[in-house]
Design a protein that fits this description.
five-stranded mixed β-sheet; D-amino Acid Aminotransferase, Chain A, domain 1; alpha+beta; 249 residues; 12 strands; seven-stranded mixed β-sheet
């Protein structure tokens, strides 16, 4: 009987033992355009993951030997604006590239105006103060590179398995309140969307489990579904099957 192949396990077996095994790894790309979602209506599908649509700033995190970079959806560098993340994202393995959303919470819900005001700060003194009074949280939902190896050609389900493993191995099963995995549900998109509407949350993103990561593309593999008059949302969820927290974010 032929053994079923697991792409995530194959990827793990192909890794060198320790990052030092790659003597001169190629650097991460300077900029990868985030994959985008088309607008759509609520639906059910066993082939899709349904996630909360976060009300914040889309940001990619590039982790290399010399440190890490935060880059906006439009390619703008955000270095130095969120020092509260230095000891968290910076501790992930070099060669990691994450996709996610930066949010700031007010009374348990993301406040878009607060994260936008953080984004506009330039005074180092004000940045340090706001990092303490209105700290940002990075809600991550995809991983594009792992130890300098591109994952863009792997299915979403495999990329998220690798992401979960990366977060558990480096942050522990308890995780960290400033760096949180974005959980979702499979299949029951309509019921999930109804919960979003009832709670006056921002929306839902439906993603095909077999979708590859296509930078800058809006090809229908990802679908954003928003209620009319939507507001901020409450985060929740962690890696499947463990205690990864869904803390206030």
């Amino acid at each position: 009987m032929q053994k079923t192949q697991n792409p995530a396990e194959d990827h793990a077996r192909s890794r060198p033992s320790g990052s030092a095994s790659m003597c001169n790894p190629p650097p991460l790309p300077r900029f990868v355009r985030p994959m985008l979602a088309q607008p759509g209506r609520p639906f059910d599908s066993d082939q899709h993951l349904f996630e909360i649509k976060w009300d914040g700033i889309r940001v990619l995190a590039y982790v290399e030997e010399a440190g890490y970079r935060l880059v906006s959806r439009h390619g703008l560098a955000l270095d130095g604006l969120f020092p509260e993340l230095d000891g968290i994202i910076g501790d992930l393995p070099p060669g990691t590239l994450l996709d996610g959303e930066l949010v700031v919470l007010r009374q348990g819900k993301p406040d878009l105006s607060l994260i936008q005001s953080r984004h506009q700060l330039r005074s180092p003194h004000k940045i340090r103060i706001r990092a303490q009074t209105t700290p940002a949280t990075y809600i991550v939902f995809d991983q594009l590179y792992d130890e300098y190896r591109p994952l863009l050609g792997m299915p979403l389900s495999v990329r998220r398995d690798i992401l979960c493993s990366n977060l558990r191995n480096n942050l522990g099963r308890a995780g960290h309140p400033r760096l949180v995995f974005s959980q979702g549900v499979l299949g029951a998109g309509r019921a999930f969307f109804q919960q979003v509407v009832e709670r006056q949350l921002e929306g839902v993103v439906a993603k095909r489990l077999d979708s590859l990561y296509r930078p800058g593309r809006r090809d229908g593999a990802w679908i954003k579904i928003k209620p009319s008059g939507s507001k901020s949302l409450t985060p929740g969820g962690g890696c499947p099957g463990d205690g990864y927290p869904g803390k206030d974010r």
